[in-house]
Structure formats: C-alpha cells, structure tokens
Amino acid sequence: MSWTTVCDVETIGLDEAVLALVDGEQVAVVRTAGGEVFAVDQRDPYSGAHVMARGIVGTRGDRPCLVSPMYKQVFDLRTGVCLDTVGGEERVLPTWPVRVEAGRVLVGSGRNTGATPTSSPEPSSVGA
Fold first, then answer.
1. pLDDT digits over 42-67, tens only?
2. What's the rounded Cα separation, in Å, for the pair 80 and 59?
3. Short-list 20, 8, 35, 17, CA closest to 124
4. Most buried among 70, 75, 119, 123, using CB within 10 Å?
5. Sign of dihedral through CA atoms 95, 48, 71, 84?
6. Ramachandran sector of residue 33 (left: φ over 0; alpha: ψ -120 to 50; beta: rest)
7. What are phi and psi of 50, to 5 degrees?
8. CB under 8 Å to 102, separation ≥6 — which residues?
9. Which residues touch 70 (CB under 8 Å, ≥6 apart)?
10. HSE on the CB side for 60, CA within 13 Å?
C-alpha cells in the first residue's frame, strides 16, 4: 500500500475535517475532539455531492461520527456505517486507511467500501 502525506495533524482543528486528494480521489480527513484522525470519502453516499468535509463532527455514544451536511445522515467514522438513515435506504460511507507519523497525517491508497474498518483497531491520534 502506498501512503500520501496530507498535512500536519495540527492544521486540522478538533472536531473538524479537511479535504485531501489521494490517488485522484477526494477524501475527507477528520480529527475528533479526542485527537483521533479518520479518513472517509468526500462523496456523500445519499446525495452524491462531494461535501463530507463540511459535515458536523461529533459522537453518538462512544462512536466518533460525521453528519452529512446534505440530508443529515450520521456515519460512524470507524466503519462508515450509517447510524441514522433519516428514512433512506442503508448505505455505507467508504473509509480510507489513515495514520499519523511524526505529526503528519498519511492516507493510504485504496478505500474500503464495506463496513469494516481500514485502520488498526486503535484509531490514529496525535500521540500515535
């Protein structure tokens, strides 16, 4: 697997996302309030719009989540599973492998379109 350096982790605010281009694909890189870093497709699986980096970052229980800015579906950042379809059919937001090394965010090639995490069991964090 090849890795693309996206940015310094500190350039992503807590509970914020940034847009990155990885292997010609738009990826939303998300940093949670706890410092965990995740990467998901920028394309909203419900609307088809490339808007996920503009979504709301938060939690549902102990799950880090991203809320689509379009129709407000809630996605688990670890798996891409939609936790609240808002009346629509169940869809998955593809995830990307991500890690933090020496303060830099790296996103791996190849998205995961299923509902299994693409990162290690422990999500990447600032201290990792």
1. 999 999 999 999 999 999 999 999 99
2. 13
3. 35
4. 75
5. negative
6. alpha
7. -90, 85
8. none
9. 44, 46, 47, 49, 51
10. 14
Mean pLDDT, rounded, of the chain: 90
Spatial separation of the C-alpha atoms in residues 12 and 93, rounded to whole Å:
21
Closest by CA position to 79, among listed 37, 43, 112: 112
For the CA atoms of 127, 10, 65, 97, what is the dihedral angle to 10 degrees?
A: -70
Amino acid present at 8:
D
Nearest to 74 by CA among 62, 86, 61, 87: 86
- Alpha-carbon Rg for the chain in angstroms: 13
115: pLDDT confidence band, cut at 50, 70 and 90?
Answer: low
Q: CA 76 to CA 23: how far, in whole Å?
A: 23
For residues 55 and 38, give the distance between their C-alpha atoms in angstroms, rounded to a whole number: 13
The Cα-based distances of 122 to 37, 40, 75 in angstroms read 10, 16, 18
